[in-house]
Amino acid sequence: MAPKHFTPALFAFLRELEANNEKTWWDANKDRYQTVVRDPALDFITDFGGRLENLSPHFVADARTTGGSLMRPFRDTRFSNDKTPYKTNVGIQFRHEAGKDIHAPGYYLHLEAGACFAGVGLWHPDTDVARTLRKAINDQPDSWAAATKAEEFTNTWSLDQDEDEMLKRVPPGLDPGHPYADDLRMKSFIAGANLSQKQVTGAGFDEQLAGMFTRASRFTLFLCEALGLPF
Hints:
alpha+beta
């Protein structure tokens, strides 16, 4: 049987952190963070690397403790009214090899008590990248439909975004009567899929997640091709 990477202890830690989000508590529980959160996440990243390689050789599973696929636990509070110092979730990103230099598609896993999900695509790319992707959707409706409207994709993934995450109207130069006009208004080109804690803590979760990412392959391929990136 495939190993379990994450346990209920991870979510217990995150719930307690949410209730005690301060440096004193963190310092007293840092060893626990490393044991039930950081180390299992790094093991998951290492083990997922082979599955990611089979999906595409151009995405990176980096198990370094800093600067790799595991996102740092510290919040950037400089421009936020919320000054709590620590994230109450675990973020794991598998970036495209070009992602260090440009906005590029990636895969993402978000672990949070009661709010786990997987993601794929680009979140808030810069203006030029967003314009390039919208033009590709505008000019290639059949390819976009094959990537995002087929049951293989929609049975797992959703492109739905809050209206405040959408442009008010289709940008100039694109077809306002396009069959996927709402997709031309997206600010982020991402698909999401909710996960349960039972799934995350079950044996074989890495295999299950790899299967989910595989079912988004045509979506990822569309984004990569639009940006001139290998997949």
